[in-house]
Amino acid sequence: MEPRCSLLLLALAAMLSVAVAYDPLDPNGNITIKWDIMSWTPDGYVAVVTINNFQMYRQIMAPGWTVGWTWAKREVIWSMLGAQATEQGDCSRFKANIPHCCKRTPTVVDLLPGVPYNQQIANCCRGGVISAYGQDPAAAVSAFQVSVGQAGTTNRTVKVPKNFTLLGPGPGYTCGPAKVVPSTVFLTPDRRRKTQALMTWNVTCTYSQHLASKYPSCCVSFSSFYNDTIVPCAKCACGCEHKTCVLGDSKRLAVTGKHEHAHAAAARGHRDKEAPLLQCTTHMCPVRVHWHVKLNYKEYWRAKIAITNFNYHMNYTQWTLVAQHPNLNNITEVFSFDYKPVVAYGSINDTAMFYGLKYFNDHLMQAGPYGNVQSEVLMRKDASTFTFRQGWAFPRKVYFNGDECQMPPPDAYPYLPNSALPAAAASSLGAAVAAVVVLLVMIVA
C-alpha cells in the first residue's frame, strides 16, 4: 500500500502544481522563450533568443524581465547584442579574448532604451518591459542575440541549456524544460524567399499568483445608486503584517522624498525592486478597484469603474483591468478606457479587458492626487437575465495587471431595497407625486 500511496501523492502534487499556474480566464496564457541557432562558429553558435508574451492581460513592467539558465557543459558567452549578462564570472582561464560571461548559470537582462545602434537588434532594448498580448501584440515580444562558445557545432553535438528561470520582474513564473522543435522559418523582406534556423528549441513559462505573493495585490469595493451602503475592501485584504504605511498628508513623504527617489531610480534602470510604501488604509492593498452601479435606463444601465493607486513607490505603465460579468457581452460604449473582449471559451463572452488610452491615462500614477483613473461602461440590458437583485450587477472576478483581486464577501453586496418598482421607476413616480402635491398646494392657496 505504501508505494501506491506514494505514487498517488506524487500524482496529486503534480496536478496541484499545474492547477496553481492555470488561469481560467486565460487558459493558454504563457511566456515562450525561443532559441534559434542562426549560424555556426568555430567553437559554438550564434543564436537569437526571442521572449514572446502570449498572456492576454499580464505584462512585464519595469524594471523588466530577467532570464537565467544552466549550461549543459562548459559553455561561455562570447558576446551579446540587445541584452547583457549581469555578472561576468571567473574568466581567468582565458588569456587573449575574454568572454562576456563565463558563469555556468548566467543571468541575462534587457538593455535600456538609447544604447548605441551597434549593440541593438530588433525588439530589444526596452528595459525588459513587454506588453500584454491582448493589449499590444506588436510590443509583446523581446529579443537578444548571443554568441556561445565551447559548445557543440552541429545539431547532434549541441546540448540545450536546462533549469530556465524567468522573473517578470518579480517571482511567480515556472519554466519547463527546453524542447527541440521544428526549426523556425523566416521570410525575406520581399516575402519571396524562405529561410530557416539551423536548430530551434522552446521553453514555456507559466505564471502562478500564489508563487508570486502570499496575498493579493489588489482589492475590490462596491456601491450602487439604489443603496446608500458602500461596501469597502475587506480589512487586511492584502495582508497587514510587515508593511510600511504613511498617512496621505504625512510629513514623512515631504521629508524623505522616497517616492521621487524611487521614480528617478526606475528611470535610470535600477533593477532592485524597492519595497512598497503604502498609504495607510484598512485593506493595505497597493491598488483598489471600485465598481459603482451608477444609472438605470429603460434599455441600458451604466457602471462606473475607478482604479486607485495607494503605493507611493510605483507607477503602473500600460496597466490592464479585467472584469467578468454576464452583461459584458453587450457593451454599448466605454468612456475614457480602451476595451477588448476576452473570449477564452468559444462563444462565452462574459469577460472584458480595459486599459488606458495612449498618452491620456495609460499611466496610473503613484499614490496621491493623480493616482487614479476612471471610466464608465454603458451596457444594453438582456431582458431574460437582467436584475439588480442578489448582487447581479457586480462583477464575478476582477484582475488588475493579471493578478486576481480580493472581492468582498457575497453577503456584503449592496442589496436592492424591498420595493416592487425598479429604482428608476420609483424615482420617476416620486418626482411625479411631488409635482402633483406642489400643484395642489398652489391651487388651494
The fraction of residues assigned to DSSP E strands is 25-35%
Tally of helical segments: 5
- How many strands, which pairing sense, and closed or not: the largest β-sheet? 7 strands, antiparallel
Helix content: 10-25%
Low-confidence stretches: 1-19, 255-272, 420-445
CATH fold assignment of the largest domain: Immunoglobulin-like
**Rg, alpha carbons:** 27 Å
How many independent structural domains? 2
> Mean of the pLDDT scores?
86
What is the CATH first-level class name of the largest domain?
Answer: Mainly Beta
Note the gap between the termini. 95 Å
InterPro entries: COB_C, COBRA_pln
Keywords: Glycoprotein, Membrane, Signal, Transmembrane, Transmembrane helix
Organism: Miscanthus lutarioriparius
Family: Belongs to the COBRA family.
Give an overview in words.
The protein has 445 residues and is α+β, with helices and mostly antiparallel strands. It folds into two domains: 31-211, Immunoglobulin-like (Sandwich), CATH 2.60.40; 214-248 and 277-412, Immunoglobulin-like. 14% of the residues lie in helices and 34% in strands. The protein contains five helices and 28 strands. Strands 1, 2, 4, 7, 9, 10 and 13 form a seven-stranded antiparallel beta sheet that branches. A six-stranded mixed beta sheet has the order 15-14-18-19-26-22, with no helix packed on it. Strand 1 and strand 2 (44-53) form a beta hairpin. The longest helix is centred in the last third of the chain and has 22 residues, at 423-444. It is elongated. The N and C termini lie far apart (95 Å).
